[in-house]
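Researcher: Can you fold this with flavin-adenine dinucleotide in place?
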Amino acid sequence: MLLSQLAAIRIQVEWSHRVVSCHEDISAGQGGVVLDSGEKLEADLVVATDGVGTRSHGLVVGRMVEAKSVVMQFMDGVSG
Ligand SMILES: Cc1cc2nc3c(=O)[nH]c(=O)nc-3n(C[C@H](O)[C@H](O)[C@H](O)COP(=O)(O)OP(=O)(O)OC[C@H]3O[C@@H](n4cnc5c(N)ncnc54)[C@H](O)[C@@H]3O)c2cc1C
């Protein structure tokens, strides 16, 4: 359904690309991503859906956020 809707508004989907970083230029109202091929893509809007360990953390939070097991967080709390 999503793919057919994207096709209807002429948005092309490309598969098998890996994002290594995200960037934005607030004054220009532009953002984008850099792929592992080195290709730089610019866009009005970037929707990051790359799950845990997302490459967008550096931009949105200001640092990369390491995934941590809930059990380990509980154990850290208990021990100190
Ligand atoms: C073993 C296990 C069991 C789980 N069981 C449950 C459950 O029972 N119920 C429940 O609600 N949740 C469960 N979860 C959690 C659930 O899988 C996640 O919360 C959910 O998949 C998150 O969806 P997402 O779309 O944000 O990320 P994901 O499903 O992780 O999708 C991210 C996608 O982005 C791609 N990607 C990642 N990095 C990059 C990159 N740099 N460039 C390009 N693409 C990239 C990945 O290949 C992947 O296709 C489980 C998780 C695990 C590991």
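Model: Folded with flavin-adenine dinucleotide in place. Residues 70-79 form the longest helix (10 residues).
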